[in-house]
Amino acid sequence: MATHKQLANWYRLLAQHIEAGISLPEALSMAEGVPSAGRLEMVELLESGASVEDTMAQAPRWLPETDRIFIAAAAETGQFPQTFENLSAQH
Question: pTM of the predicted model, to two decimals?
Fold first, then answer.
């Protein structure tokens, strides 16, 4: 299970990677600090063509349900960096 501190750091890394122009699957692959098995499963889903919403529906248990909703919404609005920064601050 990921701690709040781990999630906060991970979300901060994701925001930085996305702001630098790295795709979400690559950012998930690169940003360590949470269980790698769950991260890599999300990467595989996204790379196989699954939507962010579908990927969040199948996300590992350590990813909080409410966070999944915000991440799926960020995909719809194009607000990944800000959403990840907000989630980082929240955790």
Answer: 0.94
